[in-house]
Amino acid sequence: MSTVIPEPSLQQDVHRLYKDHHGWLQGWLRRRLGDRERAADIAQDTFLRLLVTRRLPGSGEGRSYLAQIARNLVIDQWRRQRIEQAYLDSLAMLPEPETPSLETRAMVIETLLQIDAMLDSMPAKVREAFMLSQFEGLTYPQIAERLRVSVSSVQKYMIRAIQACYQVLYAE
């Protein structure tokens, strides 16, 4: 269980955790990832996350807490790479004059990452209804049949999903 730490002792506590566990965490990551530089980057990001969130592990939970943060960072990084690669693969199919600028690419990738996070945070049936509608082109009655729910439930799921998309796209 983590606790929120007041600012004065936060840096000292993170420094102590860093001193006690950084070498172990980096070795643990290196064994799992097989990449020294990537392990070093994620270990640093793990401690940065502690400073940003201001949450530290409880007594005796240092390694398991740090490992969980590091696992989440690896998953986030893998997800980002997967989304970027899928987008770049789709761009490779476009004729040269239609290829978007680097700035546009970065904006699209960031939006795709936000949508991915939004979809991941949705309840399973809402996410599935949205995916069936948008990516498989199913009608609401077809989705209702597939999910074994009423058409009105599908409508509610879609409203919820579309509102979440709208928030991601137009929140700023």
Automatic annotation (TrEMBL):
<keyword id="KW-0731">Sigma factor</keyword>
<dbReference type="InterPro" id="IPR007627">
    <property type="entry name" value="RNA_pol_sigma70_r2"/>
</dbReference>
<dbReference type="Pfam" id="PF04542">
    <property type="entry name" value="Sigma70_r2"/>
</dbReference>
<protein>
    <submittedName>
        <fullName>ECF sigma factor FemI</fullName>
    </submittedName>
</protein>
<dbReference type="InterPro" id="IPR039425">
    <property type="entry name" value="RNA_pol_sigma-70-like"/>
</dbReference>
<dbReference type="InterPro" id="IPR013324">
    <property type="entry name" value="RNA_pol_sigma_r3/r4-like"/>
</dbReference>
<feature type="domain" description="RNA polymerase sigma factor 70 region 4 type 2">
    <location>
        <begin position="113"/>
        <end position="165"/>
    </location>
</feature>
<dbReference type="Pfam" id="PF08281">
    <property type="entry name" value="Sigma70_r4_2"/>
</dbReference>
<keyword id="KW-0805">Transcription regulation</keyword>
<feature type="domain" description="RNA polymerase sigma-70 region 2">
    <location>
        <begin position="17"/>
        <end position="82"/>
    </location>
</feature>
<dbReference type="InterPro" id="IPR036388">
    <property type="entry name" value="WH-like_DNA-bd_sf"/>
</dbReference>
<dbReference type="InterPro" id="IPR014284">
    <property type="entry name" value="RNA_pol_sigma-70_dom"/>
</dbReference>
<comment type="similarity">
    <text>Belongs to the sigma-70 factor family. ECF subfamily.</text>
</comment>
<dbReference type="InterPro" id="IPR013325">
    <property type="entry name" value="RNA_pol_sigma_r2"/>
</dbReference>
<keyword id="KW-0804">Transcription</keyword>
<dbReference type="InterPro" id="IPR013249">
    <property type="entry name" value="RNA_pol_sigma70_r4_t2"/>
</dbReference>
